[in-house]
C-alpha cells in the first residue's frame, strides 16, 4: 500500500468517521436535557456534546460558596411532566447549587438521557455543508458529527469573563474563579482573601468566605442592589397556589411577563402616599422574592425614572441602617443605575458582613487597581497582601458561550462572529439569517435572563422540536429566517428596550462588562407571555419570516415582519381584543359616552401639576365648560387652547386629562381644555363654532385665567385636532385671535374614505372605518361634509400659523393628516410632521400606558415651546427630560 494512502487512512482513523444524527445539541444543562427528552420522543436521532464531565450546565461549573438560584425553586423547575414534579421535592425556597445539580442528575437518570450525551467533548468547529444540507461538527474528543439540525443549548451565563488586570500571572498565591470553582472545594480558613467583583456570585459568596478567612478584602468597582433572600422552606402561600391548581399555576407563569405567576400591578407611584409606598416596600422586602419586588410595588417602577428612584432611595435606607460605617455604607449604595436595570441580587447577610472586623471594602471608583503583584493587589492608594484571589467578575453573557463554540460558518462561508461583530442579530432569539437549521435556546433576542429561565427554556425547546417535526412531516429539509424578518425583529427589540430602564445601565445585559463588546440590550424586554404569543403567531401565519426548502416539495417563503406595532400598543390592542367589546357604534351615543367614561376610570391618573381649575366661558349659544391645567412654576405662562377627541360625539373637557397634564409638565405652559357641544344633539357646525368662540374668549381673558396675554396656541387630538385646524382657518378669516401655532394629533381633516389608510387600518386598531362612518353620520349630513369647517383640507390653507402634525401608522386617519400637513407646507406654512411608526390612533393620549408614546410627546412639547418663542426643552428632573428624551429622538427619527 502506498505511503500516502497509509498516512491518509491513519489520519481518517484519528478523526473518526462522522457520526450521523438528525440533531446535534451543544450543552447538557436545563436546556440540553429537555431537548434530548423532547427530540427522542419526536423520533429524532440525537447526540448532545458537553464539555463538562456530567450534566448540569452552569450548575455543574458554578460551585462557589453560597451559589443558589434567585428564582424560587418551585418555579425554577421543569413542568413538562406532572409525574416528575410529584417525584421531586425541593428542600428550600432557593435551592443551593448542589441540590440543583442533584435535581438535574435525577432528571437525566429518570429519562435515561446520559446515553445520548458525549461528556468531556467540546465542539471546535461547525460548518454548513450546502451540498449535503447538513452541519459538519469537529470536536476535541472523539469522532466528528454530521447533523441535519444544530442546536445551541449553551446557556446564557456559562462563559466566564477573563480578568482585565495586569499582573495576574505574577501572583504567587492561589487564584480561583467563581464560574469555575474547584469541585472538591477550597479551604480558605486562616487565609488572607481578596474577592474582586460584587455581582451575584460575589454577593452570594462574600458572607461565607468572610466566615472562613483570616481577613477578606472586597474590591468593588460598581455596587449592586441586593435584597435579603429570607431563605427557608418554600412559602406556604405560593405552595398553596401551586398545589391548589398546578396546571393553572404553570399556565399563568407561561403567560406572565417574567415567567412567574404574578399579576400586572396597576397602581402607579404618584397615586400612592409615602406611607402606602413604604408599606408596599416593607412587605416586598420581607418576602425575599426577587420577582415580587421587581414587579409588584407599583406599575411604573420599571419604566419611569421617578417611580424607580423611590425604590432606590428605600433600599439605600436599608443599607444605611445595616452597615455601621457611613463611608462603607455610602460605597455600597448604587447611584449609577435604576433598580432592576441590572439584575438585583438575593443575599444572605451580605451588608451585615461589612460590619465584621475581618472585612475591608475597597472602593475602586476612588482607588482603582493598578496591578496584581506576586504578593497581592496594589491600588492607587494602598497595597494589600493576600494569599488567595477570587475573581467574581462574571460572564461574557448571552453571546459568549455561543461564540466560544467557534468558528460557526453558515451559508456561503458566512461567519457567525462576523455577522455579530456589531451585536447579535437574530430572529426571535432562536435563529440567524444565513445559518440554516441552526437554533439557539434562550439566545440573544429572547426573554432568557429577564425571565424565569425554566419557563423560557421549555417554551423554546417545545417550539423548536415541534417545528422540526412539522418540517420533517411536510418534506422540508431546511429552515432559515429571512433578512427582512430578522431586521424586523431587531427593530422590535429596539422598540421594546425603550419601554424599560435597562438602557440606562452598563450591565452584562448590554455587554458593557466585556471590554470591546458592542453594547445593546441583548435579552427581549417585552415579556414572556407576549413573546410566546409572537412565536405562536409566526406558526399560525405559515412560518412567517422563514424560508423552507426540501428536495421533493416546493420552497415556501412567507416573508414579513411578525411585529409591526410598538410593543405596548400590541399589548393594549390584544387586551382590548380579549374583552370582546361590542362595537362602540352599536351602543348609541348615550351608551357610548357611558362606556368611554367607565373605560377612562381604569387608566392611570394624570400626574400632579401646579393647579387645576374648572370654569365656564360664554359660547355662541350658552356657557361651555373648561378646565385649566397650570404648571407648578410661577406664571404667567403661554396659553394652549386644547380640544379633546371623541368624533364630535364623545368626551368632555376632562376626558384627555392625563394628556393635558403630561403636556403641561413637558411644556411648562398652561392648557385650557374646552368642553365643546356634541352631536347628535348639536350637529355641524356646532363643534367648529364652539371651538372658535372658546379660543377667542380664552385669548381675550388669558390674564384672568393666569396665562400670558398675547397670541395663544391651539392643540387637539382626533376630532379635537379637526376643531383646532378649523379654528386656525376661522381665526385667519375672521380677524383673530392671534394664534402662534397649532398642534394637530391624528386629526380629522377630510371626509374622503378612499385613502389607503382607511382600507389598510379599517379594523383591528380600535378606531375603525365603521366607527368613523358612525361619527360622521351623527355629526354632519353628506351635503355639509365638504365645508372647510368640517373638512379643513378642502379650505384655504395658506396664511395659517406654523403647525406640528402627528399621524400614526395604524390609524384610518393617517393619510388625511399627512395630506393636510403636505398641503399646508405647499402653501408656505411652516410644518413639521411626526409619522409615528408602530402606533395607533390613541397612542399619544394613553399616557403612562403606551410608554413608547412619550418621545413623541417630547417632540410635541418642543414644537409648542418653539411656537411660543421659548427654548425647546423644559427641565423636569425626571424621565420626561432624561430617561425618555434620548431614546425618543431615535424613535422619532425612525418614524419621521
Automatic annotation (TrEMBL):
UniProt superkingdom: Bacteria
Any one GO molecular function term: hydrolase activity
Alpha/beta hydrolase fold-3 domain: residues covered: 640-842
Start and end residues of each stretch annotated as Disordered: 874-896
Presence of the UniProt keyword NADP in the record: yes
Assigned keywords, A-Z: FAD, Flavoprotein, Monooxygenase, NADP, Oxidoreductase
Record flagged with keyword NADP: yes
Swiss-Prot/TrEMBL cofactor(s): FAD
Family: Belongs to the FAD-binding monooxygenase family.
Descriptive protein name: Steroid monooxygenase
